[in-house]
């Protein structure tokens, strides 16, 4: 089969592909490691070494348009978005040096390890509170909607200093923005656009409020962040950056915890093994990030003609770096198709990216997942997947998103 023919089989939004994309990724690595998928106008990059090569070379492989919607937004949609200050530019994710260097340094000043460490007692309390609510009902729950998603949003609102009462509304706005990355009818697109526009206006008001009345939260710290020789963040930059932090922090954490629980519960004996040795929780999180990455991949654009994986790419080629494929590359991970919470090499995964764009919130995501799993192991040691539960995934090009996770436990 020629590379172009194999690229025709890239149908990431179809149910059969969403259920198990990994055999297709394995074929890509074997037969066509860099190949064009015409339906999305993307070059698929599937081998670990090639993905890392791209992520290390920001000069040749630009991050501009990293999260540009795969299809141009309709004119009627843009008419709703532009007055609210929306652009498809996503700071940090979609910046190249030197702009990225400046922004990363400013974020690093405000969102450092000390801030994450200081959040740990509060995250523990939030986990406990959400579990109290869960355990106050029937011994059966859909964990994503009833625990994981509300908890992740609570952590983000706590970090950014957003009112807890706005959590449900912010979640809906994030869901609206996700729809920009899948084909939907115009009327649905317009409804989503109204939500995205409202979100930008909400964040602008919040930033201006913190500018006038700083508090002990991340937005205030970002406003106050300074680095030698660089200007501070302006309102437009901070609105866009806050949107990225809310969206990435909530979505990635939700998907990581849900995916971890899915695999820990569906593989026989693994949940029981963790109960006996909770020290393994941290490595189980790394293995989840490797085995079934919450972020399928990221885009890059070539700035000049270049060879990659034996394939000639023109200037302006848009690449889709398949982290989910690289994370199962047999040349890096022996028996990569196997879920193994003891895997020593799991930490080499690409689940949080690599290089200058390595996820700025990785330590927070790991901490949130760790504290949630440890609390569930302590308080629901007999938790199990509900009989007949088959996890499916929402259609999304970039995020691997479980629809639901139904569990039960002994009363």
From TrEMBL:
Transmembrane segments: none annotated. Keywords: Heme, Iron, Metal-binding, Monooxygenase, Oxidoreductase. Pfam families: p450. The keyword Metal-binding applies. InterPro entries: Cyt_P450 (IPR001128), Cyt_P450_B (IPR002397), Cyt_P450_CS (IPR017972), Cyt_P450_sf (IPR036396). Belongs to the cytochrome P450 family. This is Cytochrome P450.
């Amino acid at each position: 089969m020629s590379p172009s023919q194999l690229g025709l089989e890239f149908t990431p939004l179809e149910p059969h592909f969403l259920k198990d994309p990994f055999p297709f990724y394995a074929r890509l690595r074997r037969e066509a490691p860099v190949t064009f998928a015409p339906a999305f106008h993307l070059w698929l990059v599937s081998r670990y070494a090639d993905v890392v090569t791209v992520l290390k070379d920001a000069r040749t492989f630009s991050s501009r348009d990293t999260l540009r919607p795969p299809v141009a937004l309709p004119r009627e949609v843009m008419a709703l978005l532009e007055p609210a200050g929306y652009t498809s530019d996503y700071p940090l994710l979609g910046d190249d040096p030197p702009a990225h260097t400046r922004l990363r340094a400013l974020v690093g000043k405000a969102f450092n390890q000390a801030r994450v460490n200081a959040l740990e007692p509060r995250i523990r309390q939030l986990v406990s509170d959400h579990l109290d609510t869960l355990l106050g009902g029937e011994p059966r729950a859909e964990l994503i909607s009833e625990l994981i998603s509300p908890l992740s949003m609570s952590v983000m609102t706590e970090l950014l200093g957003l009112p807890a009462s706005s959590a449900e509304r912010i979640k809906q706005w994030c869901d609206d923005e996700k729809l920009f990355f899948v084909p939907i009818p115009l009327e649905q697109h317009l409804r989503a656009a109204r939500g995205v526009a409202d979100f930008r206006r909400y964040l602008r008001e919040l930033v201006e409020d913190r500018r006038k009345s700083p508090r002990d939260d991340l937005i205030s710290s970002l406003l106050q962040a300074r680095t030698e020789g660089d200007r501070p963040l302006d309102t437009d930059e901070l609105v866009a950056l806050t949107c990225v932090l809310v969206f990435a922090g909530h979505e990635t954490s939700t998907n990581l915890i849900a995916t971890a629980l899915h695999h820990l519960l569906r593989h026989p004996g693994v949940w029981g093994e963790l109960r006996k040795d909770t020290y393994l929780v941290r490595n189980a999180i790394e293995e989840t990030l490797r085995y079934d990455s919450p972020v399928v991949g990221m885009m890059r654009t070539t700035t000049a003609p270049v060879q990659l994986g034996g394939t000639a790419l023109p200037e302006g080629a848009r690449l889709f770096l398949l982290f989910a494929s690289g994370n199962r590359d047999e040349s890096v991970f022996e028996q990569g198709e196997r879920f193994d919470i003891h895997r020593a090499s799991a930490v080499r995964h690409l689940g949080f990216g690599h290089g200058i764009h390595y996820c700025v919130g990785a330590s927070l995501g790991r901490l949130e997942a760790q504290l949630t799993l440890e609390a569930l192991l302590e308080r629901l040691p007999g938790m199990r997947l509900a009989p007949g539960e088959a996890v499916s995934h929402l259609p999304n090009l970039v995020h691997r998103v479980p629809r639901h996770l139904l569990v039960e436990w002994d009363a």
